[in-house]
Backbone:
């Protein structure tokens, strides 16, 4: 973990650092000029002279485009509510479309970090892209807030003081489902997902929780990401006759799987459970086929708390659309950043103090009470939801204050 | 353009390329490295497409395989030795090119395009759907290769050092391709492209010549892929996908297929265009797509055509005796396999 | 595996193969008759599905979506042929590759501008909505069975048109020898236009018909394009019968591959392709080298 503690300048190219020095010099000169006018600025006031550069690296096109837009809207909504400022500083936004392409991720991240020299990067949805972003963020010591991607490693083996997550970890949202399904009387379960990191981590977490509760997973079905020809595997589920099925799919795959499952009549005899993404943002397309599906997630559409009500109405007023978990995660990302910056009066130079403030933050998110663990992953309630009336309604808290074990994360000071 | 003026342009371009890291910020040095690597890939592809007349849609796969080889050969916690990993990566790409080429070159024209596409996608799915290379999540290369010789070592983690190494590779690659196309081998390759039957009747082993060109081109693509993976520290199956192959074809055609250096210019133009469009327009792909479509009709001869239009000269005639306009009908049409009519009857409907 | 399960999986494979055939037939006709390589075929498949969603959302009728979607795509095909593709008949395949590559980007972005970035679904017509009980707990949607039937009818129709009608005769003559056909005063050029538009319409029709059992989503054309290419390579360019054989082979390989060799299922298709190419470089029903 030695590279984490290295100062920024040691890792950057000489030309880049000299550019920074020059800016600092100009800021200092401006400070001196105002000094002459009989005003003594504090150090943070100097830092506030330039707007805070926030770089969005989100999917603005491709499969996850809508998710990216909602995160963006949620973040901006919070900034607008603060009068266009975070920690008292004006905010300048930069954005790069990551297209959910891992192979272009390093390049896109370099655009923000190297070309635009942003202070903070916010991104992204796709786990593979997020992994590449974490790598660049660690190499360049850039502040990173992950507003969705749940890949366990980001707050596990690859954790770093300056990498935060305002969303969830794959482990976190699926582990509680094990006990829920066991309590519902299911003992033999089949899992099905795409064969990629997110799917495998979610299924593994579920299996861990389910085995701990005393159940057994009799078959783990998987197909290549993002293939949607499910018919052969659905036939296999019918032959295996498990007590229930646990599924993770998202987006178009989730819609098709839920519809195919219902069309095969399996929903009548083998109840379908899943990670929340199986029915999040997809219910209009899934229609009646989604009714009765139970999922776990750190948010539900009808959460009855003041923060959520206020958030949903202001999001609707701003965008004309109903806010969802992605918008909440963007909103909370901005809230977290604001907390940190306010603690240091907008001075990014005082980063250790800022990070400390962010990590010890406790606030009421629209999703409920939220704090952070040592790896900067949220500690939050995970809800059991059921699809009713075309939305994900909370029916219980599956587990309170779920804390990701942050496996592999070396202790951070 | 005369040979002398052309070599002047090349000399100036090279001087600019050498001076670049001394004046440009790190980001742009990295950007230039990326562009030069795409240029090397385009130059490699053009040996097959421009000089060989074989439209390959699997070069991204050869490019990507070398990148994956580096990922496999990089031990945990340290960089791979360049002396071991580079030849190994190039060998993997060349071998893949040999196998794909041996099978694909039994076909021609439209079939060749589709078979190479299908083989490229096969490699894509091999890495995408199995656990061999981390599946669809890809693999990370945490440290760049170690470039040591004797007691000294080049630090590839430094953007400018990396850039110069890439530049040297590109210059060597271009020199190799230039030498090849001027050699008897190159003349045979071009002869087979222009008139296969005549080349055959003159006793050229057409299949072997084409296969050799395909393998050399694959090896060069491997060099580009190796350094590209090293630069980004990450390989994903999409590196092997046909979208990249098609993009490189666009670079080749834009730059002009009649010269060795044209595709390099095309690559620089496309990468630059992408950068500008991406940072200025939300729907940049729409504009990019329209430009590609327009290029097919307005600038079939690529940038060379543009240059000669601007300079008011006749279309650039090559010193290499490898003239070929993408659109112009060929002189001895009687036996030309590229004639559309023949091609069409080659691939006609028979239900 | 019990006999019943085997039969159900067989049905799954055949049904998948028939959909593949539907999409690939358009591709193979455009290849074979016009000698045009169209990489944007998958993009039109996707566009068809979006047309279906769009029209169904306004009219509430799947039938309207089917007719309207096919008509729209056919007209789009005519337009594209008229403006772009006809200029490429006399040029080499590289130009066609580039044009259709550009077209993919343009169609994809236009789709995003016109129809948004969401995932949608389309309801099948009410009289096809039910399902048939196959085993004690597994039922099969009637729509999937109807889809099989429809594909079979369509295949028969394509064969009939090409083999038995005057139009088909012109098409075959033109594919054989364009100059001679033209010299005989046969209106081959206008036939070209309809063949290209027909190919586009077939791709879109595939997307429309699949929309009720699949989902309408942005990347749906990518996978389909590659599979159609493999079908055409397997069967032999220009051969509709070859496409049918290739599509069924792939449908069955994919389905049983997923059941028996889940780890390598998608590679199997390409192994099959490589095997066939070793045996017959120009595909199963492809013509031998002249």
Residues:
């Amino acid at each position: 973990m030695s590279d984490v503690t290295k100062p920024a300048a040691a890792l950057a190219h000489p030309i880049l650092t000299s550019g920074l020095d020059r800016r600092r010099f100009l800021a200092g000169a401006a400070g001196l000029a105002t000094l002459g006018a009989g005003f003594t600025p504090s150090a943070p006031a100097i830092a506030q002279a330039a707007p805070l550069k926030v770089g969005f690296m989100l999917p603005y096109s491709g499969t996850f485009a809508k998710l990216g837009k909602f995160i963006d809207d949620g973040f901006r909504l919070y900034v607008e509510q603060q009068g266009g400022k975070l920690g008292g500083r004006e905010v300048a936004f930069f954005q790069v479309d990551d297209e959910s392409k891992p192979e272009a991720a390093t390049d896109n991240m370099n655009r923000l970090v190297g070309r635009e020299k942003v202070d903070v990067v916010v991104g992204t949805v796709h786990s593979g892209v997020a992994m590449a972003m974490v790598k660049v963020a660690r190499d360049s010591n850039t502040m990173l807030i992950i507003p969705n991607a749940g890949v366990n490693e980001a707050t596990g083996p690859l954790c770093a003081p300056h990498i935060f997550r305002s969303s969830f970890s794959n482990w976190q949202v699926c582990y509680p489902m094990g006990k829920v399904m066991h309590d519902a009387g299911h003992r033999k379960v089949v899992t099905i997902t795409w064969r990629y990191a997110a799917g495998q981590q979610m299924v593994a977490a579920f299996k861990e929780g389910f085995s701990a509760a005393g159940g057994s997973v009799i078959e783990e079905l998987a197909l290549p990401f993002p293939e949607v020809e499910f018919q052969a595997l659905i036939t296999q589920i019918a032959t295996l006759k498990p007590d229930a099925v646990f599924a993770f799919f998202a987006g178009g795959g989730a819609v098709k799987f839920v519809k195919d499952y219902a069309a095969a009549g399996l929903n009548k005899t083998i109840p379908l459970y899943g990670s929340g993404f199986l029915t999040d943002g997809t219910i209009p397309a899934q229609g009646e086929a989604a009714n009765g599906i139970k999922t776990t997630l750190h948010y539900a559409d009808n959460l009855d708390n003041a923060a959520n009500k206020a958030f949903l109405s202001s999001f609707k007023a701003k965008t004309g659309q109903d806010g969802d978990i992605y918008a909440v995660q963007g909103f909370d990302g901005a809230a977290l950043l604001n907390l940190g910056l306010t603690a240091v009066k907008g001075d990014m130079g005082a980063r250790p103090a800022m990070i400390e403030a962010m990590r010890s933050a406790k606030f009421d998110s629209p999703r409920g009470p939220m704090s952070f663990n040592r790896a900067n992953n949220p500690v939050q309630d995970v809800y059991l939801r059921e699809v009713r009336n075309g939305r994900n309604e909370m029916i219980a808290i599956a587990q309170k204050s779920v804390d990701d074990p942050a496996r592999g994360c070396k202790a951070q000071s | 353009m005369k040979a002398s003026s052309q070599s002047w342009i090349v000399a100036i371009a090279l001087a600019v390329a050498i001076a670049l890291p001394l004046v440009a910020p790190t980001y742009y040095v990295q950007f230039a490295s990326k562009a030069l690597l795409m240029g090397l890939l385009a130059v490699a592809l053009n040996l097959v497409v421009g000089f060989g007349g074989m439209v390959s849609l699997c070069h991204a796969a050869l490019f990507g395989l070398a990148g994956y080889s580096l990922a496999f050969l990089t031990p945990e916690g340290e960089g791979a030795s360049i002396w071991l990993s580079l030849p190994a990566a190039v060998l993997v790409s060349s071998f893949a090119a040999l196998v794909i080429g041996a099978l694909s070159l039994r076909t021609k024209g439209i079939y060749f395009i589709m078979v190479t596409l299908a083989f490229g996608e096969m490699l894509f799915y091999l890495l995408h759907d199995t656990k061999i290379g981390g599946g669809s999540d890809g693999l990370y290369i945490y440290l760049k290769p170690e470039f040591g010789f004797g007691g000294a070592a080049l630090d590839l983690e430094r953007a400018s050092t990396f850039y110069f190494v890439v530049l040297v590779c590109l210059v060597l690659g271009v020199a190799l391709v230039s030498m090849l196309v001027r050699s008897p081998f190159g003349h045979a390759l071009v002869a087979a492209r222009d008139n296969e039957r005549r080349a055959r009747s003159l006793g050229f082993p057409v299949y072997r010549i084409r296969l050799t060109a395909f393998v050399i081109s694959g090896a060069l693509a491997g060099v580009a892929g190796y350094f590209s993976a090293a630069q980004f520290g990450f390989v994903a199956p999409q590196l092997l996908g046909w979208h990249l192959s098609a993009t490189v074809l666009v670079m080749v055609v834009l730059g002009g297929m009649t010269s060795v250096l044209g595709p390099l210019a095309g690559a620089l133009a496309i990468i630059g265009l992408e950068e500008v469009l991406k940072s200025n327009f939300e729907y940049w792909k729409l504009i990019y797509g329209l430009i590609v479509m327009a290029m097919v009709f307005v600038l079939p001869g690529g940038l060379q055509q543009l240059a000669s239009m601007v300079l008011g000269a006749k279309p650039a005639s090559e010193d290499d005796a490898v003239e070929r306009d993408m659109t112009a009908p060929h002189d001895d049409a009687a036996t030309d396999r590229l004639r559309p009519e023949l091609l069409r009857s080659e691939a006609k409907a028979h239900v | 595996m019990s006999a019943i399960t085997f039969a159900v999986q067989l049905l799954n494979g055949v049904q998948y193969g028939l959909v593949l055939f539907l999409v690939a037939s358009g591709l193979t006709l455009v290849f074979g008759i016009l000698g045009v390589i169209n990489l944007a075929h998958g993009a039109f498949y996707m566009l068809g599905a979006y047309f279906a969603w769009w029209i169904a959302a306004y009219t509430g009728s799947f039938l309207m979506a089917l007719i309207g979607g096919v008509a729209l795509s056919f007209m789009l095909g005519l337009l594209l042929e008229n403006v772009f593709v006809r200029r490429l008949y006399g040029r080499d395949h590289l130009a066609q590759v580039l044009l259709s590559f550009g077209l993919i980007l343009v169609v994809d972005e236009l789709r995003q501008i016109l129809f948004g970035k969401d995932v949608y679904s389309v309801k099948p017509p009410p009289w096809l909505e039910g399902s048939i009980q196959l085993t004690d707990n597994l039922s099969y949607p009637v729509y999937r069975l109807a889809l099989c039937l429809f594909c079979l009818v369509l295949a028969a129709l394509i064969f009939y048109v090409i083999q038995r009608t005057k139009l088909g005769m012109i098409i075959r003559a033109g594919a054989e020898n364009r100059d001679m056909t033209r010299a005989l005063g046969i209106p081959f050029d206008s036939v070209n236009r309809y063949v290209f538009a027909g190919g586009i319409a077939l791709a879109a029709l595939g997307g429309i018909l699949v929309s009720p059992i699949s989902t309408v989503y942005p990347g749906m054309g990518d996978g389909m394009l590659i599979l159609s290419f493999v079908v055409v390579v397997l069967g032999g360019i220009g051969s509709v019968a070859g496409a049918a054989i290739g599509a069924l082979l792939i449908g069955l390989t994919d389905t049983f591959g997923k059941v028996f060799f889940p780890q390598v299922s998608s590679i199997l298709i390409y192994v099959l392709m490589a095997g066939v190419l070793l045996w017959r470089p120009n595909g199963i029903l492809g013509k031998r080298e002249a």
